[in-house]
Amino acid sequence: MTKDIATPNRTKEILKKYNFTFKKSLGQNFLIDTNVLRNIVDVAELSPESGAIEIGPGIGALTEQLAKQVKKVVAFEIDQRLLPVLADTLSPYPHATIVHSDVLKADVRQVMSQYFEDGQDVMVVANLPYYVTTPILMKLLEERLPIRGIVVMIQAEVAERIAAKPGTKEYGSLSIAAQYYAKAEKVLTVPKTVFVPQPNVDSAVLKLTLREEPPVKVRNERYFFEIIRASFANRRKTLLNNLIHNLMGKDNKAVVEAALEQAGIDPNRRGETLTIEEYARLCDALESVQER
Ligand code: SAM
Fold it and tell me: Which of 126, 246, 280, 289 could hold 233 in an S-S bridge, CB 3.0 to 4.6 Å?
């Protein structure tokens, strides 16, 4: 039996056979530790009937571990040079399909309907390219795909920001955006030594379990996220000042003050102290004050 792809020796052999050179611009840091990969897969709680979506299979290290557990794996890979490598390394797993595309441009829902059954349990599991972590996660969440959740290796600092609670220095618009769609937990920290080449930053595994309903109901979702972005634009400024300078304009100071009062929020607080529920109240209050 051949050894797992994610062993230092087998990875070295594969890279040599294909004369593969890493592209830093594509965030290519491959995992060479089978235990770490198994831990990632365990966190996803997959069954033999599950499906898995991977983003950036590289030479197939994680794809292989997923394929051993689930009924179907679909992996999006942007780098054409990896296609012949994957055809070779994944040949024992015919139920693993590679889609050659930039996941940010791909119609993931359409691909899912092509390869997964209706109602099938599907998880996204990936060691993400770090240069596009946030856009990829936000795309997957905002599109409200029919998935149970997302388990990803990302920069530790980004995992902390996404899972952060109000009042902490890591809490920001990204925490709220992600937690609006999902329950977020940082589950593992991972040393740099399990990658080739080693990345410059520490890594962590983040688990997002999608919510059936958002934790708050807002009348205008788009406006809700605009308010949040404006509230965090300058962390040293008060909520009132951020809302005036980054959203409503100086002439609308009275409108902002009236909305904050209606929502029961002290205008001198800072954006990072508000809970998602308070942002929802603020959003509805800003709308209703402007309708008057
Ligand atoms: N899964 C492999 C592993 O764990 O060893 C490789 C992970 S590596 C961190 C990221 C992978 O994502 C690379 O294979 C890279 O070519 C691919 N990639 C980068 N940008 C991408 C994009 N926009 N869409 C799809 N794949 C991308």
Answer: 246
Beta strand 51-55 with 72-77 is parallel
Nearest alpha carbon, ligand 1 atom 14: 58
Q: Is 184 helix (H, G, I), strand (E, B) or coil?
A: strand
Q: Which of 258, 255, 146, 114 is nearest to 210 (CA)?
A: 146
Judged on CB neighbours under 10 Å (0-12, 13-18, 19+), 236 is exposed
Q: What is the mean pLDDT of the chain?
A: 96
* Residue ranges of the chain with per-residue pLDDT less than 70: 1
Give the per-residue pLDDT at 32: 97
Q: What is the pLDDT of residues 108-117, one digit of tens each?
A: 999 999 999 9
The pLDDT of residue 278: 97
CATH for the stretch 221-291: 1.10.8.100
Q: Which mutation among 34, 62, 78, 125 tests ligand 1's pocket best, with the greatest number of atoms within 8 A of CB?
A: 78
**CATH C-level class of 8-210:** alpha beta
Coil, strand or helix: which one is 15? helix
Spans of all domains in the chain: 8-210, 221-291
